[in-house]
Write a structure and sequence with these properties.
It is a single chain. With 289 residues, the chain is mostly helical. It has 13 helices and no strands. It is globular, with a radius of gyration of 25 Å. It starts with a helix and ends in an 8-residue tail after the last helix. Keywords: Cell membrane, Membrane, Transmembrane, Transmembrane helix, Transport.
Length: 289
């Protein structure tokens, strides 16, 4: 088919516009990476770098030699791993019974799940609940109240409903109980959904910020996002509490850029391992049958 010059012009302009938009989106990431890897002396002289003459890992070495930064990375890693694992277990254990019509009281439980989606308790009731549980100033305050959410439960329920119930009946005829069916039959078939929700949960736990500000008073329990916020607001490196304060630190702007990269890279590295499952899991609940 012949394409008119107007369509060709539109496609060309569309391609140029999308290319410029992509460059505008990627440039801040590029600049942050370049500044974090620049030589401190060169950065102190120029203050604006697009391609340094000399590269250096001094900012990363300084960050990784500080107690506060390593501790915050460890806290975020704990949240992302333990929190994601527990959230997947709780979500799957709640969604699977709800997907089977033989469950007694299924409609009432579904109504309770739906209410949590439509109505939010608010900040003050949530804080009072965490305080009554004795979780104030505990890292578990960032995990236990967020173990599952109604939207994830409903989506995973839809995925379980797409698995034929005949598989359950066949396994039951072979003598398997409900727990054995769930572990041996359902979960192996649910890897796409678990991978997709696992990535969503991991990103959420890794980026914990507002809840940490509310529930955590001890700075040693801060996740990396809270420490990064304190670094970005401070004009010096006081928030880092360095082991070796005798060493001259790089400029604070370089440390901030390096901290942003370190806070971003772990989640970016996780995605390739889940990519083969993520494409299928992203469609969870959209197609039934």
């Amino acid at each position: 088919m012949r394409i008119g010059w107007r369509n060709q012009a539109f496609q060309s302009l569309n391609g140029v516009g999308l290319g410029l938009l992509g460059l505008a989106t990627c440039f801040p990431i590029y600049y942050v990476l370049v500044v974090s890897l620049a030589d401190p002396a060169e950065f102190a002289q120029k203050r604006w770098l697009l391609w340094p003459d000399h590269w250096s890992f001094d900012a990363y070495r300084y960050l990784l030699s500080t107690d506060a930064f390593l501790r915050s990375v460890g806290n975020s890693a704990f949240l992302a791993t333990v929190g994601t694992a527990l959230s997947l277990i709780v979500t799957a254990m709640l969604a699977y019974p709800l997907s089977r019509r033989r469950m007694r009281g299924r409609r009432k439980v579904l109504l309770f799940v739906l209410i949590t989606i439509l109505f939010s308790p608010g900040l003050i009731p949530a804080y009072m609940l965490v305080r009554q549980l004795g979780l104030i100033d505990s890292i578990w305050a960032l995990i236990i109240p967020s173990l599952a959410n109604g939207w994830s439960v409903l989506l995973m329920k839809s995925f379980f409903e797409s698995i034929p119930a005949d598989l359950d009946e066949s396994a039951a005829m072979d003598g398997a109980n409900d727990v054995r069916i769930w572990f041996s039959v359902i979960l192996p078939l649910s890897m796409p959904a678990l991978a997709a929700f696992g990535l969503f949960y991991a990103v959420g736990y890794w980026n914990q910020f507002f809840s940490a500000l509310i529930y955590l008073n001890d700075s040693t329990k801060w996740p990396i996002q809270v420490l990064l916020q304190n670094m970005l607001l401070s004009a010096n490196n006081a928030a880092l509490d360095a082991y070796d304060v005798s060493a001259a630190p790089p400029p604070s702007e370089m440390l901030k850029m390096a901290a942003v990269i370190v806070a971003t890279v772990p989640i970016v590295l996780v995605y390739p391992f889940l990519q083969k499952h993520f494409a299928k899991g992203a469609m969870v609940g959209s197609i039934k049958g």
